[in-house]
C-alpha cells in the first residue's frame, strides 16, 4: 500500500498528452520501459498428481500489454491465479515490484496493486453498477467505523470524493445509463464492461484480464479492445490478458507468452510467436 | 399523481447518495415517526403493551439478523441465544451498578452479545450456508444451557428467572412493575429509531458494500482487497449487537422478567421467518416482516370472532387459536410463492408503479 503507486487520473491525462504527438499508432504512443514489473521464475503448480504448471518463467514489463495464450487446459487461468495470490505455486517464485513474497493472500495482492477480471463474470449480482464499482475502491477508503455509523462529516466527504473517481470510470466506459441498474439484469457484454470498471476503480498497476472478450460479438469485441488499449495508454496500466481470439491478441499485445500442458512453449512479439513452429503445432496438431 | 420525482433534480453526489432521495419519501418517514410518537400519547394500553412495543423490539432483532443473513449472506440460527446474551448481560450490569441509567446498560449489553457473536462467528471463515447454520445452532444450545445452568448469570435466584428492577429515566419509571406502558413505549421507540438510523448508515456505506460483496461473490471480493475475516466478523459483531439490544429491551421494557427458555430455538426461527417474509437485505423489510409475523396473528384474533359471530357461530378461543395458526401458515406460503424476495420487493414494485401511475411504464 505504498503511496507512490497511486497514479491519479490527472497524471494519466498528462502522460497521454506528452505521448500523443509521438504518433497516432497504438504501440508508438504507449509509455513503455524495460523495467520489469512482475517476474515469474520457474513456477510449478500441482494439485495432487495433476501438474497444472511446470517450470514456467516469464516477465511482464511496466506499461506493456502482455498476452498469455494457449489451448484449453494449458494452465493460463492457473497462472493468473498464482499471480494474484489465489493459488500458491508449489515451486518457483513470483516477484512483483521487486518484492518476492512466498505466500501472498489475494487481498494483499490487491493492496499491492494487482486487479483482476474473471472468465465467468464475477460481479456482485445484488448490487447496482455504481455500487459494484464503488466497492472496487474499498481499499482506498479510510474513514473508521464511527464515521461510517453516523454517515456524516468525513464519511460523506470521502464517499463523494470516491464517487467522483468512480464517475470518471463510468464516463470512460460509457455506462452512464446503467449506473443505478442491478448488474444481474444487465446483458453479458455490459457486465463484462462493469467488471472492467470495478477492476479499474482499484487504480491497479497490473491488470489481469481473463478472457475479456469471451462470448462477445464482433462489435462488443471492438469496443472492449478499444477500452483495453485506452486503459493501457491513458492510465499507464500494465495489462496481462488471456484471450482465445487470435486476431485480438495479435493486435493488442506487445508480447505474447504461449503455454501448452502447463509448460511455456514460446515467448516473444506477436510476429515471432505466429511464426513459431511449436505454437503452430500446439494449435493445429502434428501428424503422428 | 402525488408520488412523482419530476422536478426534483439532484445536483450533487451528496444529494444522490441520500437514503431517501425523494421528497415524498422523506415526508412519509417523518409522518410515520410523528404518528408513532402520537400513538404513545393516544394509544390504549393494549395497543402499546401487546402490539407496538413487541413489534418494535422484534423489528430491531430482525434488523440485526438481516445484517448477518441478508447483507453479509451468513446464515445464523442463534438469534434467540444472542438476544439472551444481551438480556443477561443487561441484568448483570443493572444489578451490579444500579446507579447507572438502565438505558445506558441496555445499549452496553449489545457489546457483550457482539463479543459472543464474534466468537461463534469464527467458523464462518471456513464454512458457509447450512453448515454455518449448524455451527450457530451449537451457539444456540450452548448459550441457552448456560442461562439455565450458570446461577451466577441470574444472581443465584431461587426461581432461576431474571427480573427487571425498578429504574427511572428523567424521574419517570421505565422498568419494573410500576413503569407504565407509555413510558416504556417512548423509550423503545426512541431506541429503535436511533439504532435503525445507525444500521441504515452502516449498510449504505463502505462497510455495507463490503458485506454485500462478500455475500454475492466472496472470491471476487477478496481479490478486490476486502478481507473476508474482518468483513465477516464485523457482520457478526454488528448483527449480534442489534440482536442483543433487542433481547435486553425484550426483557426489561416488555416482559419485565424472563427465564432461560424465552431465548430458545423457536425465537431464532421466529426472527428468521420475519426477515425471509420481509425481505432479505432490506431494513424496511425487517419492519414489514416483523409486522406480518407478529401482528397478523393478533389482528386475526380480533377479526375472526367479528366475522363468525354475525352468523351465530360461537367459536371457542382454542379454535380461533388453531385457525390463526392455519391462516398465518397459509399466508406465509402464499407470500413465499408469489414474492420470494419478500414484502420489501412488493413494496418497491408498488412504489415503482405509483411513480408512473396512471401509465403502465
TrEMBL record, chain A:
<dbReference type="InterPro" id="IPR032823">
    <property type="entry name" value="BCA_ABC_TP_C"/>
</dbReference>
<protein>
    <submittedName>
        <fullName>ABC transporter ATP-binding protein</fullName>
    </submittedName>
</protein>
<dbReference type="GO" id="GO:0016887">
    <property type="term" value="F:ATP hydrolysis activity"/>
</dbReference>
<keyword id="KW-0547">Nucleotide-binding</keyword>
<dbReference type="InterPro" id="IPR027417">
    <property type="entry name" value="P-loop_NTPase"/>
</dbReference>
<dbReference type="InterPro" id="IPR003593">
    <property type="entry name" value="AAA+_ATPase"/>
</dbReference>
<feature type="domain" description="ABC transporter">
    <location>
        <begin position="38"/>
        <end position="286"/>
    </location>
</feature>
<dbReference type="GO" id="GO:0005886">
    <property type="term" value="C:plasma membrane"/>
</dbReference>
<dbReference type="Pfam" id="PF12399">
    <property type="entry name" value="BCA_ABC_TP_C"/>
</dbReference>
<keyword id="KW-0067">ATP-binding</keyword>
<keyword id="KW-0813">Transport</keyword>
<dbReference type="Pfam" id="PF00005">
    <property type="entry name" value="ABC_tran"/>
</dbReference>
<dbReference type="InterPro" id="IPR003439">
    <property type="entry name" value="ABC_transporter-like_ATP-bd"/>
</dbReference>
<dbReference type="GO" id="GO:0005524">
    <property type="term" value="F:ATP binding"/>
</dbReference>
<dbReference type="InterPro" id="IPR051120">
    <property type="entry name" value="ABC_AA/LPS_Transport"/>
</dbReference>
TrEMBL record, chain B:
<feature type="transmembrane region" description="Helical">
    <location>
        <begin position="129"/>
        <end position="147"/>
    </location>
</feature>
<feature type="transmembrane region" description="Helical">
    <location>
        <begin position="55"/>
        <end position="82"/>
    </location>
</feature>
<dbReference type="GO" id="GO:0005886">
    <property type="term" value="C:plasma membrane"/>
</dbReference>
<feature type="transmembrane region" description="Helical">
    <location>
        <begin position="267"/>
        <end position="285"/>
    </location>
</feature>
<keyword id="KW-0472">Membrane</keyword>
<feature type="transmembrane region" description="Helical">
    <location>
        <begin position="102"/>
        <end position="122"/>
    </location>
</feature>
<feature type="transmembrane region" description="Helical">
    <location>
        <begin position="183"/>
        <end position="203"/>
    </location>
</feature>
<protein>
    <submittedName>
        <fullName>Branched-chain amino acid ABC transporter permease</fullName>
    </submittedName>
</protein>
<dbReference type="Pfam" id="PF02653">
    <property type="entry name" value="BPD_transp_2"/>
</dbReference>
<keyword id="KW-1003">Cell membrane</keyword>
<dbReference type="GO" id="GO:0015658">
    <property type="term" value="F:branched-chain amino acid transmembrane transporter activity"/>
</dbReference>
<dbReference type="InterPro" id="IPR043428">
    <property type="entry name" value="LivM-like"/>
</dbReference>
<keyword id="KW-1133">Transmembrane helix</keyword>
<feature type="transmembrane region" description="Helical">
    <location>
        <begin position="292"/>
        <end position="313"/>
    </location>
</feature>
<keyword id="KW-0812">Transmembrane</keyword>
<dbReference type="InterPro" id="IPR001851">
    <property type="entry name" value="ABC_transp_permease"/>
</dbReference>
<feature type="transmembrane region" description="Helical">
    <location>
        <begin position="233"/>
        <end position="255"/>
    </location>
</feature>
<feature type="transmembrane region" description="Helical">
    <location>
        <begin position="325"/>
        <end position="347"/>
    </location>
</feature>
<feature type="transmembrane region" description="Helical">
    <location>
        <begin position="27"/>
        <end position="48"/>
    </location>
</feature>
Amino acid at each position: 500500500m505504498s503511496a507512490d503507486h497511486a497514479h491519479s487520473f490527472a497524471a494519466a491525462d498528462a502522460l497521454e498528452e506528452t505521448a500523443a504527438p509521438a504518433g497516432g499508432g497504438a504501440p508508438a504512443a504507449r509509455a513503455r520501459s524495460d523495467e520489469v514489473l512482475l517476474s515469474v521464475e520457474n513456477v510449478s503448480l500441482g494439485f495432487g498428481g495433476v501438474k497444472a504448471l511446470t517450470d514456467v518463467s516469464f516477465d511482464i514489463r511496466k506499461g506493456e500489454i502482455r498476452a498469455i495464450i494457449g489451448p484449453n487446459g494449458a494452465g493460463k487461468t492457473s497462472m493468473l491465479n498464482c499471480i494474484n495470490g489465489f493459488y500458491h505455486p508449489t515451486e518457483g517464485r513470483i516477484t512483483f515490484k521487486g518484492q518476492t513474497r512466498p505466500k501472498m493472500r489475494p487481498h494483499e495482492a490487491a493492496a499491492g496493486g494487482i486487479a483482476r477480471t474473471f472468465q465467468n463474470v464475477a460481479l456482485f449480482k445484488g448490487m447496482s453498477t455504481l455500487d459494484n464499482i464503488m466497492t472496487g475502491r474499498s481499499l482506498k477508503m479510510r474513514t473508521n467505523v464511527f464515521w461510517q455509523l453516523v454517515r456524516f462529516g468525513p464519511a460523506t466527504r470521502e464517499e463523494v470524493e470516491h464517487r467522483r473517481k468512480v464517475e470518471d470510470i463510468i464516463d470512460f466506459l460509457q455506462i452512464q445509463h446503467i449506473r443505478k441498474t442491478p448488474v444481474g439484469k444487465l446483458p453479458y457484454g455490459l457486465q463484462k464492461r462493469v467488471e472492467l470498471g470495478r477492476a479499474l476503480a482499484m487504480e491497479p498497476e497490473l491488470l489481469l484480464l481473463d478472457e475479456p472478450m469471451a462470448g462477445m460479438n464482433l462489435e462488443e469485441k471492438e469496443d472492449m479492445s478499444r477500452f483495453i488499449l485506452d486503459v493501457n495508454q491513458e492510465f499507464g496500466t500494465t495489462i496481462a490478458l488471456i484471450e482465445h481470439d487470435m486476431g485480438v491478441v495479435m493486435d493488442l499485445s506487445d508480447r505474447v507468452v504461449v503455454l501448452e500442458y502447463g509448460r511455456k512453449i514460446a515467448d516473444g512479439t506477436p510476429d515471432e510467436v505466429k511464426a513459431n513452429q511449436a505454437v503452430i503445432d500446439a494449435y493445429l496438431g502434428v501428424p503422428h | 399523481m402525488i408520488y412523482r420525482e419530476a422536478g426534483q433534480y439532484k445536483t450533487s453526489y451528496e444529494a444522490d447518495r441520500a437514503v431517501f432521495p425523494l421528497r415524498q419519501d422523506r415526508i412519509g418517514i417523518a409522518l410515520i415517526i410523528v404518528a408513532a410518537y402520537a400513538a404513545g400519547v393516544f394509544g390504549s394500553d393494549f395497543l402499546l403493551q401487546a402490539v407496538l412495543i413487541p413489534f418494535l423490539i422484534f423489528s430491531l432483532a430482525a434488523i440485526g439478523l438481516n445484517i448477518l443473513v441478508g447483507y453479509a449472506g451468513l446464515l445464523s440460527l442463534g438469534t434467540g441465544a444472542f438476544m439472551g446474551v444481551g438480556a443477561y448481560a443487561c441484568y448483570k450490569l443493572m444489578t451490579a451498578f444500579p446507579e447507572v441509567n438502565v438505558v445506558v446498560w441496555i445499549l452496553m449489553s449489545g457489546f457483550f452479545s457482539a463479543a459472543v457473536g464474534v466468537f461463534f462467528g469464527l467458523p464462518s471463515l471456513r464454512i458457509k450456508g447450512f453448515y454455518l447454520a449448524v455451527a450457530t445452532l451449537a451457539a444456540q444450545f450452548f448459550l441457552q444451557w448456560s442461562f439455565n445452568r450458570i446461577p451466577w448469570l441470574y444472581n443465584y435466584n431461587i426461581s432461576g428467572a431474571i427480573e427487571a428492577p425498578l429504574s427511572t429515566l428523567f424521574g419517570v419509571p421505565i422498568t419494573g412493575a410500576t413503569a407504565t406502558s407509555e413510558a416504556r413505549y417512548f423509550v423503545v421507540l426512541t431506541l429503535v429509531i436511533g439504532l435503525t438510523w445507525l444500521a441504515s448508515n452502516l449498510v449504505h456505506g463502505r462497510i455495507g458494500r463490503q458485506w454485500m460483496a462478500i455475500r454475492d461473490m466472496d472470491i471476487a471480493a477478496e481479490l478486490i482487497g476486502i478481507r473476508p475475516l474482518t468483513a465477516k466478523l464485523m457482520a457478526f459483531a454488528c448483527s449480534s449487537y442489534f440482536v442483543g439490544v433487542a433481547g435486553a429491551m425484550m426483557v426489561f421494557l416488555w416482559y419485565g422478567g424472563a427465564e432461560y427458555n424465552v431465548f430458545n430455538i423457536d425465537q431464532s426461527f421466529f426472527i428468521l421467518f420475519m426477515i425471509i417474509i420481509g425481505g432479505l437485505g432490506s431494513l424496511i423489510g425487517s419492519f414489514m416482516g416483523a409486522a406480518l409475523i407478529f401482528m397478523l396473528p393478533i389482528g386475526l384474533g380480533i377479526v375472526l370472532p367479528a366475522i363468525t359471530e354475525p352468523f351465530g357461530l360461537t367459536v371457542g378461543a382454542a379454535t380461533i387459536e388453531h385457525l390463526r395458526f392455519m391462516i398465518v401458515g397459509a399466508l406465509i406460503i402464499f407470500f413465499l410463492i408469489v414474492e420470494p424476495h419478500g414484502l420489501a420487493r412488493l413494496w418497491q414494485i408498488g412504489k415503482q408503479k405509483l411513480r408512473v401511475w396512471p401509465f403502465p411504464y
